[in-house]
Structures are given as C-alpha cells and as structure tokens.
Amino acid sequence: MTNTNKPESDQASEAQTSFDGITFEVEEEEHTQEGNKVKRRGIYLWPNLITTSALLSGFYSIIASMNGDYTQAIYAIFIAALLDGLDGRVARAIGAQSAFGEQFDSLSDLLAFGVAPAILMYSWSLHDLGRIGLAACFVYTACAAFRLARFNVQIGVVDKRYFIGVASPLAAIMIVSLVWVGRDFPLIFDLKDVAIQTVNAVIIVAVGLLMISNIKYYSFKTVDRSRVPFFVLPIVVFILAAMTYNIPVGILVISIIYALSGFVTTFMARKSA
Q: Higher confidence at residue 22 or residue 186?
C-alpha cells in the first residue's frame, strides 16, 4: 500500500483561501477585543484614501520641482504634511488602524518627505554642484528611509511623548521653508554663489543626520489629551500673529527652534533619568 500523503507545499497551498494570483486583495491578521487573532480581507477606505492623497501631493511636488515650478512644489509638500497628520488621527478616531495602513503611510512619507524635498533642493540650488549636490540630496533621502524603518520597528517600544530623531515631515518642512525663504530673498540667497550652494548642501545633510540621530524631540502627541495652563493660548496666538508678518521666515525660524530644542529635551531627559 503506497503512501498518498501530499507534500507540505501542496497542503499549504490548499490551506490558503482562494488566492489564485489574479485577484487584488489584502489579507491581514487583527486582534479582536477578546484577544483572538482573526484574518480579515480588504482595507479601511478613509485613512488610506488620505494617505494616497499625501502620496499624490509628494508625487506632484517632484514633477513640479523637475519643471522648475518651485512654489507649487513647496505647497504640495506642505499639503502632504497636513494630510500625514490627518490620516493617523482619522484611523484612530474610527477604529480603522491596521498593519497595511502603517506600512502604506511609511511608503507615502518616504516619497513626500524623503524624495520630494531632496529633489526640490537639488533642482533649486544644488544641481550646479554636480555629484556633490547629488550625494548630499541622496544622504537626506537615505536618512529619511532609515528614520522611517527605525520608527516602524520601534512602535510600542519607545516613549510616545518623544520622537527619536527629527520626524521626516518636520525635516521636510525645514528644507521646504529654507527654499521658500531663499526664493523670497534672492539677493541674500544668491544661487550662483558657490558658498551659498555649499551651505545648502551642508544643511540638507545635517537635517538628514538629525533624522537618524538619537536626539529626543517632543512629539506633541499627548497635548490634545491633556490640559495646559491658560497662558499657553496667548503665547500661541502671539506666535501665529508674528508669523503673518512673513510666513516663510516664521516657519523657518520655528523649524530651527524645534531642531535645537531636541538637544535641550535630550539633556533634560538624561538628567531626570
């Protein structure tokens, strides 16, 4: 009597449900309220639709930068940053968090905040430096990829009150605001000056390194769930009013202050440890 047991590969293929290689479907495990693992198909529409819009904004920024339309490229990255802050909140509000959404969000962030700002800076200022400018922009993009990969593996491990390294959207805003200010003050930011080009290359590399550093930055994730003293509101109003005098300069100054605040936050955290 012969043994008719099927190979393990055949058994595994039969155990898989109706995935014939043609259908476009997503299947992932989720934990129920009872703690059981269940497999669900499909994706949550609204959070992933917002993420797709952020991806589109990043893609449009790249095209605009390549065409020399830097103003539209700047606006597109800012829109992507707003949408990036919105998709996670929508997902948590409607209970639509998923592993697919987390990975999709990271890929969207890499394009919108890793690739698009680098191409913007290269097209605007660093192309005359040749390979040096190309290398500087690549360092920034690679650091953004490292930052997002590290963030994904550290979810649930690090303190939610802090970012370890500058978050990629905030790094992108630093680069974008610098380009925006440079366009508003062409006499100061003379792009034909090699010294200005070199400074811009150093800045984009430095911002990239801040993303993969171990410097702690306050994440503001607990602000919406806790009370603050009343005097904080007039301070915020004053800052917003000051920004209206020159919005690009205001955003750049706030970005620089936030970048420097990480060193203070790290020092205070180590002192209290």
A: 186
Residues contacting 162, CB < 8 A, separation 6+: 216, 217, 218, 219, 265, 269
- For residue 37, the cross-strand partners are 31
Contact 91, 47 (CB under 8 A): yes
Dist CA 50 CA 97 (whole Å): 13
Q: Is the confidence at residue 37, as pLDDT, over 50?
A: yes
Catalogue the E-assigned strands of the chain: 27-31, 37-41, 162-164, 216-218
Reported confidence tier of residue 1, pLDDT bands at 50, 70, 90: very low
Amino acid identity at 22: I
Task: Compute φ and ψ for 164, nearest 5 degrees.
Answer: -90, 100
Q: Where are the domains of the chain?
A: 40-272
Percent of the chain with pLDDT over 70: 81
Kindly provide the b/e burial profile for residues 242-251, where b requires at least 16 CB atoms within 10 angstroms of the residue's own CB. eeeeeebbbb
60 CB-near residues (< 8 Å, 6+ apart): 72, 73, 76
Candidate CATH numbers 1.20.120.1760, 3.40.50.1860, 3.40.50.10210, 1.10.10.410; the one for domain 40-272: 1.20.120.1760
Q: Please give the Cα distance from 228 to 53 (Å, whole number).
A: 33
What are the two backbone dihedrals, phi and then psi, of residue 188, each rounded to the nearest 5 degrees? -80, -45
